[in-house]
Amino acid sequence: QQQVKQSPQSLIVQKGGISIINCAYENTAFDYFPWYQQFPGKGPALLIAIRPDVSEKKEGRFTISFNKSAKQFSLHIMDSQPGDSATYFCAASMETSGSRLTFGEGTQLTVNP
Amino acid sequence: ETGVTQTPRHLVMGMTNKKSLKCEQHLGHNAMYWYKQSAKKPLELMFVYSLEERVENNSVPSRFSPECPNSSHLFLHLHTLQPEDSALYLCASSQGQANTGELFFGEGSRLTVL
């Protein structure tokens, strides 16, 4: 059963635009929501993460918005740059699941110059 | 060497072959993981080792056999694989559990089963 659904599957944005990727989860026990960024030929790397006690977290041009009642969270990339072109994965985990991270399907972002 | 290194980066094998994937982490972490990455699918957690003890085996077929001889090394032994096992296999490590510690991934081993 897919517990974290991610959309869109692919996204094309012009340089300077805003990229928005959405994720929805089912399990209300999830308490940690990271986003990972993966460049071609590389492994995923942690980009930013949030816990449900806050509704938003911002790090530079990257912002996570979290809606606990809707069980949704999203990644916003402001002033998108060609160097942001990568695959982005949302994920979720809960304290009782220990080492298990449930990932979304991934979004391939292309930022055109 | 820094971070998480995986070898080989690319592997082509027949269905009757036996091969192994190797992962080494230089971060002093106490947990190591194998993930399978297939196109347009979520990363699938296969195995988790914490302090060299397997703590999770996510219903993975027995043709995949993990080994963790110490906290820095992780192997994935492969035998009699199927074409649908072709994928990118990612190793990761963390200090502590996944919901408190960051996962550090290697660059992966691209496996093709003929």
Give the tags.
heterodimer, A: 113 residues, mainly beta, 6-stranded mixed beta sheet, 5-stranded antiparallel beta sheet, 11 strands, 0% helix, 52% strand, B: 114 residues, 7-stranded mixed beta sheet, 4-stranded antiparallel beta sheet, 56% strand, globular
Blueprint (SSEs and pairs):
The complex is a heterodimer of chains A (113) and B (114).
Chain A: E1 4-7, E2 10-14, E3 19-25, E4 33-38, E5 45-50, E6 56-59, E7 62-67, E8 72-77, E9 86-92, E10 102-103, E11 107-112
Parallel strand pairs in A: 2-11
Antiparallel strand pairs in A: 1-3, 3-8, 4-5, 4-9, 6-7, 7-8, 9-10, 9-11
Chain B: E1 4-7, E2 10-13, E3 18-25, E4 31-37, E5 44-50, E6 53-57, E7 64-70, E8 73-79, E9 87-94, E10 104-105, E11 109-113
Parallel strand pairs in B: 2-11
Antiparallel strand pairs in B: 1-3, 3-8, 4-5, 4-9, 5-6, 7-8, 9-10, 9-11
How would you describe the overall organization of this protein?
The complex is a heterodimer of chains A (113) and B (114). Chain A has strands spanning 4-7, 10-14, 19-25, 33-38, 45-50, 56-59, 62-67, 72-77, 86-92, 102-103, 107-112. Chain A has 113 residues and is mainly beta. In chain A, the strands form two sheets. In chain A, strands 2, 4, 5, 9, 10 and 11 form a six-stranded mixed beta sheet that branches. In chain A, strands 1-3-8-7-6 form a five-stranded antiparallel beta sheet, with no helix packed on it. The model of chain A has no long low-confidence stretch (mean pLDDT 93). Chain B is mostly beta strands. Chain B contains no helices and eleven strands. In chain B, strands 2, 4, 5, 6, 9, 10 and 11 form a seven-stranded mixed beta sheet that branches. At the A-B interface, strand 10 of A face strand 5, strand 9 and strand 10 of B.
